[in-house]
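User: I'm putting together a small comparison set for a docking exercise, and I want a reference complex before I start. The sequence is below, and the ligand is manganese (II) ion. Could you produce the 3D structure with the ligand included, as structure tokens?
Assistant: Of course. I'll restate your input first, then give the structure tokens for the complex.
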Amino acid sequence: MANSKLNQTLGEFIIENQASFKYTSGELSRLINSIRLAAKVVNHEVNKAGLVDIIGNAGDTNIQGEDQQKLDVYANDKFIQTMTKRNIVCGIASEEEDDFIAINSQDENNQNKYVVLIDPLDGSSNIDVNVSVGTIFSIFRRVTPVGTPVTIDDFLQKGNQQVAAGYVVYGTSTMLVYTTGHGVNGFTLNPAIGTFYLSHPDMEFPEDGRIYSVNEGNYIHFPKGIKDYIKYCQMEEGDRPYTSRYIGSLVSDFHRNMIKGGIYMYPKSSLNAKGKLRLLYECNPMAFLAEQANGKASDGFTRIMDIEPTELHERVPFICGSKNMVEKAEEFMRNAE
Ligand code: AHG
Ligand code: MN
Ligand code: MN
């Protein structure tokens, strides 16, 4: 593939594109740089997940002496530490923390404008079986004045206010994929030298796809619209039946569907009235990426990024992927009302 952009590193890309961002102070660039660093540290740990016991048995402990620490807690600590130490955000909310964390936000000299919401390790149950996991992040400008303490209002913003969002997929190779509202770009880590290179410029969902991703084991509990859409996917007609692929790791399922064309669904069910996925650090960032990549994200009726959040860890039904597929699923939802 001849593409002159392909030898560009993530660091170079961030600098080159800083000017196209409407607030050009460089603060957002520094923030994405710190996420890049934390991603490399977490990647290193995730990669040796299966070795922990072996290393432990050899009498070798890790830096903290905490071999047995759950990786999602480790990832949480690393992302929070990196962003806190570099003093570039005024607040962080995480799946692993009950409440948001304020970072020197009461200090009137603290001019940091951004808050980050993060799922430090997504799909973490897959770690035990050597299957891809990810990290998801969402970035907003605070709505309260700089130099005053951050409040819950800084975190409970609609997704359409996001200034950046992205994910890291710790897969057969590790990639960082993000958007600042100017399309979606993917960078692959060269593990030999610890550098991310632009490998997937201007990523886009194909408008139509042939993959549907849903935990069909829950079929019996799904709403009628989703059941009907699943049957539609399985029907022999035109380019159907579609193929079914479900890793159980949102980041990986989304990543594959964006490249190949497909739809991901985590609907509400008779067991989970609002589904499972969290609006603020799973659905909103993925929805921003999807729309920037010519895809779509909805709760079945409403655009994900237009939903008004009411609490930090709230859940929402999530349908996301190739535009025509999501619209078809929405049509089934409407018809089943
Ligand atoms: P997390 O590991 O952050 O809790 O998220 C897991 C999520 C998502 O990544 C995945 O698609 C979904 O849970 C899988 O849920 P089911 O096992 O219910 O299908
Ligand atoms: Mn998750
Ligand atoms: Mn998680």
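The pocket of manganese (II) ion (ligand 2) is lined by residues 119, 122, 250, 282 (CB under 6 Å). The first strand starts at residue 91 and ends at 94.
User: Thanks, that's exactly what I needed.
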